[in-house]
Amino acid sequence: MQVHLEKENYSYIIHQGPDPDLMKFVRPGFLNYVESIYDLIDLSGFYVCIINVSQIFNINQMGYVREISDCYEYLSHCQQIAALKNKTFLVVLDNVYEAPCYDDNYKEIIDNLVEHLCITYKQVSILGFAFDYESKVKHITSHLVCCDRNLNNYDYKTIPQHHFISLARRPRPCRIFSTIMLLDRGLEKYGYISLGSMEEDTGFHRVAKKTLPDRYADRFPFLIDGFINDYDGQYGKDFKITHAFFNFVNESSADKNADNGFWTRACMTEKTTKAFAAGQIPIILGPYGNLHCIRSIGFDLFDDIIDNSYDSITNQYLRTIKAVEQLEKVCDKPIQYWQEWKQQNMERFEKNNFILKNLMKNHRHETQLLIQDYLKDIKI
Length: 380
Known about the structure:
This protein is α/β, with parallel strands linked by helices and 380 residues long.
């Protein structure tokens, strides 16, 4: 464990887990982000210990243990500070670059934490990019991950030159399945597909090599603009990406039965907002009920073009099949049809871009408001 910030009303620490090289889990400028959030929140009456739990990400694939006992001593110290100051002690599990939830990811961690510190579940919250849902603990949504400045490099007014793009840097099982579906239906002639463009040889790659049928195995990895090895590289500006009209979005979250160990709650990342920034119509493969949450922000999901009812299908594989069918349907029309359609409906793409720009501008303030509302509701 390392302590990175100690303020009057909060502390920020990093869970060490099995890896001593902690700073690789703290992206440049991230501590400034933490301060920009918590320094402007009225924490009078509270002392908050914020734990960066990034190392618990990929828990099944990387062998990380489901506990944060190395933080217990410092948490007890913070609890004593709160008691001396006559303040309510709170714990925030901070993983803003991922979308963990209590029920499917952090239950054991939080149950042990509550028992060890003799606190209530109301005193624990999770900060990530999952949308909130009813649970024992509060889930606070941060849109940091989908508001990267690189989105400004796209032009929503771009006139498309081909039908679609499908990007999948990590070859997770659900993405392998969707890629096979796209290829089997002959859709590659209408667009461009990537799968496994993360150069590092991971457990995902080994699964992909075993899972892909022989007819596609020798083509893996599927590349569009080469291997993507750094964060900024995820915002590709290749013509094949920027001049697609439909974006077949392989979101980070998936059904736990299809992709064990990953996020299962509705969420939105840069994979989706790239479509809005580039003036594309998204067909989004995410968890059950994902589109409802994205639509609640105000984004137009073009329900007159795409039958988005696939979002209500609980089975991940059936949901994928229905989503692919929607892409197949729009590919039946020539690209000239969609070029004209976009020019005639440019105001809708402009509105989505406007909503995204506002989100990029105000997401920190919105997170502050969510935390402030959470504090108002706490009654210990």
